[in-house]
Amino acid sequence: MEKTVFITFEGPEGAGKTTVLKKIEERLTERGVDVVATREPGGSVIAEKIRHIILDKNHTEMDPRTEALLYAAARSQHFAETVEPALKEGKVVLCDRFIDSSLTYQGVGRNLGIDAVKAINEFAIGDRMPDVTVLFDLEPEVGLARINANAGREVNRLDKEDLAFHQSVHEAYLHLAERFPERIQVIDASKSLEEVVESAWQCIAPLV
Ligand code: TYD
């Protein structure tokens, strides 16, 4: 494949990924860059339906393996239908969460093991990794407090996990960043929105 610009935004709940992604999308569009903003789980009609099943608060019986497989299934469809065609057309793709969410939430948070979760994701998307991942680093306590303060935000099944779960996910993200330093760029998400947008911009500007 020719040179692509596939950028993912990762991090714990309440880190501001979605808001910052929107600002970066606007900035790129203003500069005349052809950009596609998408999200996981979801980003295509079929994948959004799978999202519904995964995040439903009432699905408390969901087995961790089922959860991991559903995220991978949604990713496979989203990648084939939305991400890959856009990259082939030379568009810049910004994706709110991707494979690192599965490695951290399912691999570590759910104790399935990073290697097992990596294996099912390789089946889903081959060896296609993002070109750059912006990791929003934030203490889980701060992120969860932000979510709870935002009355308009829908609370999903994963948000309802306890603090220890979110702490293990946070640590797992930092380990991934140590393991893949060329791909994963860590930014401090505890700062003001303007500063976080600027840090994210610095990570992606060299690529676009
Ligand atoms: P969402 O409302 O999009 O959360 P956020 O705004 O924090 O991105 O819900 C996505 C949830 O799914 C979030 O709790 C993280 C979780 N998730 C996984 O556990 N594994 C995955 O592979 C992905 C993509 C998300």
From TrEMBL:
A GO biological-process term: dTTP biosynthetic process
The enzyme's E.C. designation: 2.7.4.9
GO molecular function, one term: dTMP kinase activity
Catalysis performed (reactions): dTMP + ATP = dTDP + ADP
Residues bound to ATP: G11, P12, E13, G14, A15, G16, K17, T18
Annotated Pfam families: Thymidylate_kin
Ranges annotated as spanning the membrane: none
One GO location term (cellular component): cytosol
InterPro entries: P-loop_NTPase, Thymidylate_kin-like_dom, Thymidylate_kinase
Task performed by this protein: Phosphorylation of dTMP to form dTDP in both de novo and salvage pathways of dTTP synthesis.
Family (UniProt): Belongs to the thymidylate kinase family.
PANTHER family linked to this entry: THYMIDYLATE KINASE (PTHR10344), UMP-CMP KINASE 2, MITOCHONDRIAL (PTHR10344:SF4)
HAMAP family linked: Thymidylate_kinase (MF_00165)
Protein name: Thymidylate kinase
Species, as recorded: Candidatus Kurthia intestinigallinarum
Classification lineage: Bacteria, Bacillati, Bacillota, Bacilli, Bacillales
